[in-house]
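Quick check before the chapter quiz. The format below is the same one you will see on the exam, so make sure you can read both the input and the output lines.
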Amino acid sequence: MSELSVKHLLGIKYLKEEDIQLIFETADNFKEVINRSIKKVPSLRDITIANIFFENSTRTRLSFELAEKRLSADVVNFSASQSSVKKGETLIDTVNNILSMKVDMVVMRHPNPGAGIFLSKHVEASIINAGDGAHEHPTQALLDSYSIREKLGDVSGKNVVIVGDILHSRVALSNIFALKLQGANVKVCGPRTLLPKYIESLGVAVETDLRKALNWCDVANMLRIQNERLDISYFPTTREYTQQFGVNKALLDSLDREIVIMHPGPINRGVEITSDVADSKQSIILGQVENGVAIRMAVMYLLASKIK
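Here is the expected output.
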């Protein structure tokens, strides 16, 4: 397979396994590029990419921006908090204004689930979903799987547990789709109040005992509590959450096996994981950040080849 089966990256659920493998193989090449002394390639020299963020984001936006610059694309940055959106302009108006500037690709984060899908039906540009509400965050799931592949050689057959606020997490949903597509075994672990009722219908098992989950897994992906999305209290106190679902070094060292620790960031140190876990040799959190640039370069490069 030499090209993606999709014109947009709206969510993992629209991809085939071959698409994921193609993205990974392309990212392997770009990873070599970003570790060279000259980190730029002219691959997207004639492509203009607009980064449109209707929600605050530091890491994802910087990662995309860096990836775009490494590919020599022309970049337009647009932050909704400083824009006419505040004055009542609609999503379509905003984007049409940007497209009238002849933009080829739009990287968009939006608080509403499905915003990218809506947009892809109304504009010609290629759309990359950089997170839509609690729905999907496809590039994060791709870089997470890519990081597992890099560390353990393959994703297929591996046991992965996703721990924390599954209910509000687009990272969790995209990860479940990506891991299942590649043949991994997936469990979720967290307070019952933070697990969606439909979760088992996605082919994942539920485990509410953290120690059991960690003894089962090869990889633990630790999610933060999405305080900005918690409209009611889902557990008594943060301290109690940490006692039941937080990972510290003593717990990690007491397991039957050595496991890999991941985190999509930003980390609430001392809540879901302690600093000595985040900074331990079992953690691949900084590797995930580096891989994020390579994965996003691969996605944009492959989508750009479909722009006529």
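If your answer matched, good. The mean pLDDT is 91.
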